[in-house]
Write a structure and sequence with these properties.
The protein is of the alpha/beta class and 458 residues long. The chain has 16 helices and 14 strands. Strand 5 (180-183), helix 7 and strand 6 form a beta-alpha-beta unit. The radius of gyration is 22 Å and the shape is globular. It binds ligand F0G.
Length: 458
């Protein structure tokens, strides 16, 4: 690294994908047709799509080349062995079970270990993890440190597990806990990392209670970069070495390769326990496929293997994390309240703080997300009362926060795209007091954020 401070993408563009400019009138018509739900838009009327960082990244030249090596043999494909070697190079588990994405790994794992009366603690379960735990009748418990629940509190590792709370849960209900989970980075808590010190301590608690420890490893490389840059004595370690230490601290993992696999689809479940692996493989065959492809084409396995080699590249990770922080810093300077520190994969806008005149049950997060699209064609995602406010008994209450997540797809948008996002967000924030809330016109009984239709108020 020399003295230059401009963030540049550590790649140049090899194939281009057009994005379409629309007029505000076109976007207003699109919103009305979509019932003001951004999930209902045709993606070709979205200019900058920050809905998710999952499966939306750009693959490299070498990943596209690897796809040509894809071998589609039903059993024992060479592509499977390439994938296995790449996973085990980072995470040396005895058993690796490929799945079509992260939630398929969760479904299999919790079918095997969950069930009524069981409790699964985590720093914070991602929604699909929680849903898969609860689907078996088990209880999903979030035990993140208190700082992890406060948007404006600065802490280098806001994803850390509350060790005393974990100890207390295992003391009270140890017999009901089949495993402990840690999500890196903590997506639902704002993309916040977990420190190595905390992971080692969680391992120690698990050992004391004789419990296996599992990782939800979706953004493991981003988490390792935060460890390298924020944790004492870690600065001189290669990221790959930190990742290997994390892998060595746990007994298994679930993974969505759509994040730090740098692929558009894929995932895996990995475990060391032979009996559990056998049980999971049998479930895999029922729903995903034979254990050497697990719901993926041979070419997907190749793309993931190459992605795993690229994601631990430190020039890539430096660019990834500093460019997300660049967006965060600019929005912060514009006076937009944010979750801090910024996450690795996303910046989270605090819509409840920006729009205090819109009560939670009129969905400030939705109002902000819709306005970012209406004004500039930017699609973010409400993470608040729309997503979490409806209860199984049909009642509704405010979620703990009303956020809008701007998730950054990997290697996809350039610095000028991000500058445009900043310009639009500034404009929207300057008009914050004129934004109005929404009411829900139609909604399903569960997971309403995907399909609900809204009506603007006032
Ligand atoms: N765990 C975490 C922490 C996640 O962020 C996700 C997905 C999953 C598990 C499930 O993986 O989508 O491959 O089945 N997160 C995406 C998001 C959907 O937008 O944050 P999947």
């Amino acid at each position: 690294m020399d003295r230059w401070t401009t963030i540049i993408e550590p790649f140049r563009i090899h194939a281009v994908e057009p994005i379409r400019l629309t007029t505000q009138a076109e976007r207003e018509a699109a919103l009305e047709a979509a019932g003001w739900n951004l999930f209902n838009l045709h993606a070709d009327v979205v200019l900058i799509d920050l809905l998710t960082d999952s499966g939306t990244g750009a693959m490299s030249r070498d990943q596209w080349a690897a796809i040509m090596h894809g071998d589609e043999s039903y059993a024992g494909s060479p592509s499977w062995f390439t994938f296995l070697a790449a996973v085990q190079d980072l995470f040396p588990f005895r058993h690796v079970i490929p799945t079509h994405q992260g939630r398929a790994a969760e479904k299999i794992l919790f079918t095997a270990v969950g069930g009524a009366g069981k409790v699964i603690p985590s720093n914070t379960h991602f929604d699909t993890t929680r849903a898969n735990v609860e689907f078996t009748g088990a209880e999903a418990v979030d035990l993140v440190i208190p700082e992890g629940r406060e948007p404006a509190t600065i802490h280098p590792f806001k994803g850390n597990m509350d060790l005393a709370a974990l100890d207390a849960l295992l003391t009270a209900r140890g017999a009901d806990v089949p495993l402990v989970m840690v999500t890196i980075t903590n997506n639902s808590g704002g993309g916040q990392p977990v420190s190595l010190e905390n992971l080692r301590a969680v391992r120690e608690v698990c050992d004391r209670f004789g419990k296996p420890l599992f990782l939800d490893g979706c953004r493991f490389a981003e988490n390792a970069w935060f460890i390298k840059t924020r944790e004492p004595d870690q600065a001189d370690r290669p990221v790959k070495d930190i990742v290997r230490e994390i892998g060595g601290l746990v007994d298994g993992m679930t993974m969505s390769a759509k994040k730090d696999g740098l692929a558009n689809i894929g995932g895996w479940l990995a475990v060391n326990d032979d009996a559990l692996a056998e049980q999971c493989r049998n479930l895999l065959i029922l729903t995903e496929g034979f254990p050497t492809y697990g719901g993926l084409a041979g070419r997907d396995l190749e793309a993931i293997a190459q992605g795993l080699r690229e994601v631990v590249d430190e020039d890539y990770l430096r660019y990834r994390i500093t460019s997300t922080a660049y967006l965060g810093d600019a929005l912060d300077q514009a006076g937009i309240p944010l979750v801090k520190p910024y996450g690795g994969h996303a910046v989270y806008l605090d819509a409840r703080a920006l729009l205090p005149h819109i009560p939670p049950l009129e969905y400030p997060g939705q109002a902000l997300a819709v306005e970012l699209y209406r004004a500039g064609g930017i699609r973010g995602c409400e993470i608040g009362t729309v997503m979490f406010g409806l209860h199984p008994d049909g009642t509704e209450s405010a979620a703990s926060m009303d956020l809008v997540r701007l998730a950054i797809p990997r290697r996809t948008y350039t610095q000028s795209h991000i500058d445009y996002v900043i310009e639009v967000a500034r404009d929207v924030a300057s008009r914050a007091s004129s934004l109005r809330g929404y009411r829900i016109a139609k909604q399903p009984a569960a997971l309403r954020h995907f399909t609900a239709r809204f009506q603007p108020l006032g």
